[in-house]
């Protein structure tokens, strides 16, 4: 696999999502994600999950760019569902005030509750990946500054977004160099051995990165960064009609969740009554 494809960070593209303002995308991601985490209405979660997957498809981002992240998220989700069931297999029955036994301790109500948890993953993870992969760090920082966040904090966010893919690229380069020298990091080696070897490669990278951060901070101080109360942005992108529609759509999602709270008389949609 091409190492470049394994790096998770901003990737230039020409789909309609790239044309949206970074602030609009951030507000949409936060509002929809929070509303999806708050509610357990299966109808809303299913719609948001389907919408998120379709949106990711039309963004034209190759799946190879997020394959590793998707695999990690799938493993984490499976473990989470497994532990939820093991520690309290009767939670769904108590929650929905109904009990339909399917097999052993597994009930239809517990299965329905676990299905809602799966929908929550599909509702938030694709949106998070879309935001990371389609948002230019400089435009994002300028947008944050324009809505009131201090430009020092905005610039810190921009540096973080730029530095994450650089860290990944350097780690991949170090790992490939180690494999060229005979270090076996393939699947033939046990899981714990691979983790130990990767940690041995990662620690020097972290210390060298801290030194680099200190160098960058010193260079910015020498150029009197942060001395003024305001600054201009070369890459600022103003909000347009499409951006306001995206924000309005996110607010509509929040309003629907609030409405469903009264309709369901709580956070949970109960199809068993």
Automatic annotation (TrEMBL):
Signal peptide as annotated in the record: none
Query: Any transmembrane segments, and where?
Result: 16-32, 44-63, 69-91, 111-133, 243-263
Q: How does it sit in the membrane?
A: Multi-pass membrane protein
Keyword terms, alphabetized: Membrane, Transmembrane, Transmembrane helix
Give the GO cellular component terms, alphabetically.
plasma membrane
- Per the record, the major location class is membrane
Localisation: Membrane
Instruction: Write down the InterPro entries for this protein, in alphabetical order.
Output: ABC/ECF_trnsptr_transmembrane
Q: Which PANTHER family match?
A: ABC TRANSPORTER PERMEASE, PROTEIN ABCI12, CHLOROPLASTIC
Name by which UniProt lists this protein: ABC transporter permease protein
Give the organism the record lists.
Answer: Lactococcus lactis subsp. lactis (strain IL1403)
